[in-house]
Amino acid sequence: MITTAIQSNKKLQFPPASVGYVKMEIDLIQNKPTLERYELRIVDTCFDYVLEKQLKKGYVSQEDIEPTDDDYEDVEVIKILGTNTRFKHYSYDELRQLSQMLPNVEYDNEIDKINALFQLGLLITTQGECVQGISGEGLGMYFSKSTDWELCEI
Question: What are the pLDDT digits (tens) for 111-126?
Fold first, then answer.
C-alpha cells in the first residue's frame, strides 16, 4: 500500500522549540466537486529516534524478583516531539497536471494510484515552496531546502 506521506531526510526546526525529522502526512482528502478541487488535511509530525531501555525479548518475570540491568537492552524507538495540522487544496487542473508526472509503473489497484498522486503532489508542493523561499531565500517550511524532502516508503 502506498502512503500519502513525505518526510525530511535530516533534522529540521519545528516550532515552537523542537528539532527533529519531520513527516508530513495527508490524513483526510475531501472532494469538493462544486469548487472543482480537493481539500487535504495534513498532519506534520516532528520526531526523533531515541534509545530506550526495554526488557529483553524472552524475559520471563519471576515472582518477587526484580529484573536486573542484564535483563534490559537498548532499543531504538520513535519519540514524537510535536505535531501541527494544516489544510491545503488542489484544483482538478493541478491534479491533472500532477497525474502526468506519475511514474509509469503498474499500481496494485486504483487506490494506490490515487495515493501516489497525492503523495507526489505533496512532495512537489513542499519542494516548490522551498524554491519560492516562503521561509527565506531557498527555504520552505521548517527552514528546509527542496533536497531535504523524500517520499515515505511505508
Answer: 988 899 999 999 999 9
